[in-house]
UniProtKB/TrEMBL annotation:
PANTHER family linked to this entry: PURINE PERMEASE C1399.01C-RELATED, URIC ACID TRANSPORTER UACT
Gene Ontology CC: plasma membrane
Record's keyword terms, sorted: Cell membrane, Membrane, Transmembrane, Transmembrane helix, Transport
Protein name per UniProt: Pyrimidine utilization transport protein G
Natural source organism: Bradyrhizobium cajani
Residue ranges of the TM segments: 65-82, 89-108, 114-137, 149-167, 179-197, 204-224, 244-266, 324-342, 348-372, 408-430
Keyword Cytoplasm part of the UniProt annotation: no
UniProt-listed InterPro entries: NCS2, Xan_ur_permease
Pfam families referenced in this protein's UniProt entry, alphabetically: Xan_ur_permease
Compartments, as annotated in UniProt: Cell membrane
Family (UniProt): Belongs to the nucleobase:cation symporter-2 (NCS2) (TC 2.A.40) family.
KW Membrane (keyword) present: yes
Length: 439
């Protein structure tokens, strides 16, 4: 961590004072009035909930356990970064392919080999932590040389574009679904631009509620679409313990899953850079801590049966839309997630949100992620007249958007990983001394 950051902490205490501010851009060390802070924190809970619950379902994990540990992991991260980096840690999609490969999961019901996957995820967390300690010891310089703004911007854009087909598919089952998704997008946009007062800061949660009610009215009320099924919601108990699972350790699973740590590093770096661009201040002094907080959160999650976690791009999208970066929002969201992790009824409620509404939310949030890349490039004055920059970005965007998948034996790298590693390696080759001598 930089000396400037250390001095700041010594002057203000380990955590910020969070001074009250009621209008304009709310910076990480500032806060809204408590009522608005709680509501805005709930909005971040809504933003992360879809991915945090869907990802474990795709791997056969218990979604309530994942929700619980996303909250615990976020508080771990919050403590490690001294409450100065606004981020929520939710279930990472980077683990899905390797977990399925390591466990032979068929895609239906609980994963019978869940404990094996948990051991591999812990291995990824340990590797991630080792990288974090190196960054904290040696500084962020080598990371920046390896992944300069042109590369991190490309990774951020690739993440948003890679997720885009998921959003589009969610609104494409029928023309009714498409219109619901587009109307949800429109509602979010109108709220973000024209809503009065504090309501303008809540476009995602209000858009989700409005989209849900609109779908219920048109589908359940008028029969224009598939009705929302409230059977599971009615049957689910209000309070109950999640299904905790202890890990087991197999070398083959660890070798297969642990390298996902590299993808988490790139994701986290891209997210931290995006937050830095949005707030107009560098958070590089906390990058090593951010890595360490994420790694410890991943290990803690896997020890109890949860997924690997990562800083969530969906919540970065919310910050981009609201201009509220107060870290207290994420503490609120984390505490609520912990409480809701013990409520099967809440999990059932989230799962009852219609796919087209989730798709509409995703179109906005994933698009904002991709758009953040442009801000990174502009803020850092990336020169696209330079062919090395241009080709690096072009290849990364295509690999990410097209979900280019590479297989090395049993190890598979999906589009985000391919775009990440491809951008890093290609940029280094194109800017190497050999390339300079060719000029």
């Amino acid at each position: 961590m930089s000396a400037a950051k250390s001095s700041e902490e010594q002057a203000q205490g380990y955590f910020p004072d969070w001074k009250l501010k009621t209008s304009g851009v709310i910076m990480p060390e500032e806060r809204l009035p408590w009522g608005q802070t709680i509501v805005a924190g709930l909005q971040h809970g809504v933003a992360m909930s879809g991915g945090t619950i869907i990802a474990p379902l795709l791997m056969g994990f218990d979604p309530n356990v994942a929700l619980l540990f996303s909250g615990i992991g976020t508080l771990i991260f919050f403590a490690v970064v001294a409450g100065r980096v606004p981020s929520y840690l939710g279930s990472s999609f980077a683990f899905i392919a390797v977990v399925i490969a390591a466990t032979g999961y068929t895609g239906y019901g609980p994963n019978p080999n869940l404990s094996v996957a948990l051991g591999g995820i812990i291995g990824a967390g340990v590797l991630y932590g080792a990288i974090a300690l190196i960054v904290m010891w040696s500084g962020v310089g080598w990371v920046e040389r390896l992944m300069p703004p042109v590369v991190t911007g490309a990774v951020v854009a690739a993440i948003g574009l890679n997720l885009a087909p998921v959003a589009v598919k969610s609104v494409s089952a029928s023309s009714f679904d498409t219109w619901i998704g587009l109307l949800t997008v429109l509602i979010i946009g109108v709220i973000a631009v024209a809503a009065p007062g504090m309501w303008r800061r809540l476009p995602i949660i209000l858009g989700a509620i409005a989209g849900y009610l609109l779908y219920w009215l048109l589908a359940n009320g008028l029969g224009l679409g598939k009705p929302i099924d409230f059977t599971q919601l009615s049957a689910a108990p209000l309070i109950g313990l999640p299904n905790f699972t202890t890990p087991s350790f197999r070398v083959d699973a660890i070798v297969l899953i642990a390298p996902v740590a590299i993808i988490l590093v790139a994701e986290n770096l891209g997210h931290i850079k995006a937050i830095g661009a949005m707030t107009g201040r560098s958070l590089d002094g906390y990058l090593g801590r951010a890595f360490l907080g994420d790694s410890l959160a991943t290990i803690a999650s896997a020890c109890g049966g949860g997924t690997g976690v990562t800083t969530y791009a969906e919540n970065i999208g919310v910050m981009a839309a609201t201009k509220v970066y107060s870290t207290l929002l994420f503490a609120v969201a984390a505490l609520v997630s912990i409480l809701l992790g013990f409520s099967p009824k809440f999990g059932a409620l989230i799962l009852s949100i219609p796919g087209p509404v989730i798709g509409g939310l995703s179109i906005v949030l994933f698009g904002l992620i991709a758009a953040m890349a442009g801000r990174i490039w502009v803020e850092n004055k990336v020169d696209f007249a330079n062919p090395a920059n241009l080709i690096t970005v072009a290849v990364a965007l295509t690999a990410g958007a097209g979900d280019l998948t590479l297989k090395f034996g049993a190890f598979t790298i999906g589009g985000i990983g391919t775009a990440t590693f491809g951008a890093i390696i290609l940029y280094q080759i194109l800017t190497s001394s050999l390339a300079h001598r060719a000029e």
